[in-house]
Predict the 3D structure of the following.
Amino acid sequence: MTATDMSPTEKYRNNFLREVEAHVEEGEWVKMCMQCGVCSGSCPLGNAWQHPPQELFMMIRASKRDEVLASESMWMCTSCYNCITRCPRGLPITHIMHGLANYANRLGLAPKMNPTRRFAKIFWDNIAVTGRVNETKLSLKLYFMDGVVTGVKRAFAMKNVGLGMLRTGRLNPFALFRPGGIKGKRDLQKMLARAYDIEDKRKGFN
């Protein structure tokens, strides 16, 4: 099909929009955004976004691939779902934001030092091993993810919170030495490996 044979709709659709539709969760909804800005106005972090959702969608449609995938914006979403509730077209904006973040991460284009991305990786690595979050290990990894000195400073600044967690049994130092987790951890690992393989093949990573 030549450019002259394309319909107006087909001419409008660029390669990055097609890529998002193919590889990003709910990405086929991006083209439905009418740029009203209700999502940004409904977001509790709306004034902190580098590019609010409707701007990201327009950037996708303008084929600004590098700017979108390297953006901090998708990582701002806290899954409050205000945007979905109030969107006049019912776009699954929260799912698209997480889908873009996941896609950028898998391509190695996500901002490496973004705190939300780093927390997500630490949390997933923690829970994927045993099927249950080890809160003590998770806390220590978060505190010391920028090195020992920074970790000690953070721990000292949060000492009252830590002591409160110890008193209420929410933080158990001995949990570091317990394997813990769910029954059938090996089965969990097999299921996760299979899920990764299916997703890779479906989204064209293999």
Notes: The chain has twelve helices and no strands.
